[in-house]
Each structure stands twice: as structure tokens, then as C-alpha cells.
Amino acid sequence: MALGLFGGVAWVVSGLTGSLAAAEQCESALGQTRIALAATRIDEARAAHDQAATTCPADHSAQLETLAGEIEQAEISMQCAGVEAEAAALLGQAQPQRAQRLLDEQAPRCGSRNEYRNLTNQVDVRIRRAERAMMEAWQALQRSELDAAEAALARAERIDAGVVGTDAVKSALAQARQAALELPIPTEMPPALLLPPEAVQTPPASVPSPMERAPPSMGRVPPSAPEPSISGTRSEMQRQITGLLRGGEEDLARRNYRGAITKAETALLLDPGNRDASGLKRRAEAAEQEALRDIEIR
User: 0.70 cut: is pTM over it?
Assistant: First the structure.
């Protein structure tokens, strides 16, 4: 009987010892999870949390659930920080459109972050500046101000290396410069016709005066130089407008309302009566206002 009593006590002591060891393991795993989270070592935090989930009793479920949420948020923040760094690098390389596409893809995950919103605004401003510079290049081409058009094009490319219409403007510029080089040059007046009046002798009546004779070297007087044709430029400008409208529709589909509005406004500067551009602007503005109202309600 004494032996049985001793065995029962030993069993109880063994159970208590095991429980204490499990509790210690649980608290240790929870502590390791918190330390790894503070150091943003996500993989280590997740492994420690998994260990805690297997050793901690049921009354620790609330702590485990809270830590799991913190791990998920930390992982999202780390991923978003990486996306933001990549987008900032693209912006520094004059590639704001690529940065915009990258940010748009991560909008559902990272859109609530202040860093993400600030970077998105910077990208939008850069794209708008490039598009306006390109529009200035087209307008200068229409006025046959080739140097001004080239300067505006260079400015647009410095802001956005992938700005829509670059190749079209370069082609139109090359054509305009070639046309300027091929314009006919009027023949200079011969020196004999530029003599002072007192040096001109009145010839006999039967001999025509020098002023009445056409000098052998003169030939036919060339016609006035024609104005360079801008039909090719207008065609390229129409392609530019089509590209802007296509990009604006894509922005609207991605809920980049400000980008869609900017592209519509740029198209309207090139073609003030364009109905498609006006319609795109109205739809983008209405969608932007609706999105702002949803944010205010929440």
C-alpha cells in the first residue's frame, strides 16, 4: 500500500514538472516571437510562433492570434517597403510609368501606407510634367519652331524616358528639318545690276540698256519658298492623342483617376474639341469624387 501511495505521489509530481516545463517552453517561444518581430526578422518570428502554438495551452489562444496578426502586418510592411524602394529607384531612372504600374499592382496591399501614397503622388506629378512637355513640343512643331520643339522633347525625356509620343515627335522633327534644308535659295543679283546711277551710260537708242537686257547668268527668277508642310505632323499628333486616350482608359480601369484626368486634359490641349477626351475626363472626375466620398464615409 505504501508503494502504491508513493507511486501516486510520483505520478503527480511528474505531471506537475511536465506542466511547468511546457509553460516555460510556451513563454520562451512567445518571448522569442516578440523579439524577432521587433527586429523585423519575419521568418524567425513565424518559426517561434509555430513553436508556441504547439506548446502553449488553450488559454494562450488570444495571445497567439494577436501575434499572428502582428507577424502578417510586419510581413506586409516589409514587402511594401521593398516595392516602394523599387518604385523610387525607377523614378530616379526617369521611368515613372513603370513605377506607376508597380505601385498600382500593390495598391490593395500597400495603399493605406503614407509612404506609398506620397510616392504615388510624386509619380503622378512626374508623368503629368512629361506629358505637358511633350504637348509643348507638338505645339512648337505646329508653329515651325523646331529648336523650341527639340528643347521641349529633351525636357520630356529627362522627366520620363518612356513618355508617349517620343518617336512620333522625333520623326516629325527630322522631317521638318529636312524640308527646311531642301528649300530653294534665290539667286543673288548680278553685280552689274547694282552699279550706282551715275556709272550707268545712256546707250544709243538702237541698243537696249543694261536694265532692259536680262543677264545671261540670271535665268528664270525662282518662285518664292513654299511653307513646310505639316500634314505629317498633324498625323503624328493624332497618333499622340490616340495614345493618350488609350493610356487614360487604362488608368481609369486601374482606378488611377488622376492619371486618367491628366491624359484627357493633355489630349484636349492638343485637340480642344475632342469628344472622347472630354468624356474620359468627365468619367474620371466622377469616379474620383465617388472614391473620395467612400473614403469619407469609412
Answer: no
183-192 CB contacts, 8 Å cutoff, 24+ apart: 183/225, 183/226, 183/228, 184/222, 184/223, 184/225, 186/221, 186/222, 187/218, 187/219, 187/221, 187/222, 190/215, 190/217, 190/218
- Total count of residues recorded for the chain: 298
Decide if 223 contacts 239 (C-beta within 8 A): no
What is the tally of structural domains in the chain? 2
CA distance 56 to 71: 18
Cell triple for 102: 508597380
When mean pLDDT is compared across 115-129, 140-154, 216-230, the lowest value belongs to 216-230
What per-residue confidence (pLDDT) applies to 148?
A: 94
- Segments forming the whole domain that contains residue 164: 125-182+230-297
Instruction: Mark which of 74, 98, 120 sits at the end of a domain.
Output: 120
Q: Are residues 36 and 170 in the same domain?
A: no
